[in-house]
Amino acid sequence: MTAKAAALRELADSRRTATLVAALQSLERTAVDDALDLFDLLMTSRLLSRAERESARDRLRTLPRFTRASAKLAAAIQVFLDAAEAGEDLSVAQVWAEIERVVPRDEVAAALAAVLEFAPPPAEEEEDVWRAELVKRYPTVRPFLPILSEVISFGAVEPGQRIVDAVRRLPELVGRKSAPTR
Predict the structure, then answer these.
(1) Per the confidence metrics, is the pTM higher than 0.90?
(2) CA–CA distance, 118 with 116 (Å, rounded to integer)
(3) How far apart are CA 131 and CA 127, in angstroms?
(4) CB 65 within 8 Å of CB 118
(5) What is the pLDDT along the chain (182 residues), one digit of tens a residue?
(6) Of 13, 18, 126, 152, whose CB neighbour count within 10 A is largest?
(7) How does DSSP assign the chain, residue by residue?
(8) Cα 82 to the chain's mean position, in Å?
């Protein structure tokens, strides 16, 4: 790649041809590498970042209701804990009466429903939410996939071959209402 044209002229024909073929192969690998870097940048900036921003914006919209609901629940739980610490044997009805003096029962139920609605999901469900956001963004990337598969011959060692096969099957899934699980 750094050889001068004059130095290439001095080589024998077969050596010059081999050198030029090697240079072209190197340039092809570099171009493919650059294309994949660009695709990665597109995926990161257009797909993942946008999904994260929209998710954060949705969370911010729910924050005021979540804050009010959690404050009501905190007040109700504080009454419950105070009653438990008092050491008196209080019935459930007596504890509820104390709670209702602070927060009405229907507001406690509504606050609990709101907190359950807005609380972050468990880790497994959070991953499903992330995947759902990615699926929404798939049309942004879809036009590039055929180009990449035409230009680049993807391959993998045996453990990674399932991923390569899945990527090759992506075009079959376009337009389907549901995707197979395996």
Answers:
(1) no
(2) 6
(3) 6
(4) yes
(5) 787 888 888 889 999 899 889 999 888 888 878 877 887 787 777 777 776 777 777 777 877 888 888 898 899 888 888 888 877 777 888 888 888 888 898 988 888 888 888 776 665 566 666 667 667 777 777 777 777 767 777 778 888 888 888 877 777 776 666 666 65
(6) 152
(7) ----HHHHHTS-HHHHHHHHHHHHHHHHHHHHHHHHHHHHHHIIIIIIHHHHHHHHHHHHHHHHHHHHHHHHHHHHHHHHHHHHHT-----HHHHHHHHHHHS-HHHHHHHHHHHHHHSPPPHHHHHHHHHHHHHHHHHHHTTHHHHHHHH------HHHHHHHHHHHHHHHHTT-SS----
(8) 42
Q: Output the CA angle 175-176-178, nearest 5 degrees.
A: 145
Q: Which amino acid is at 133?
A: E
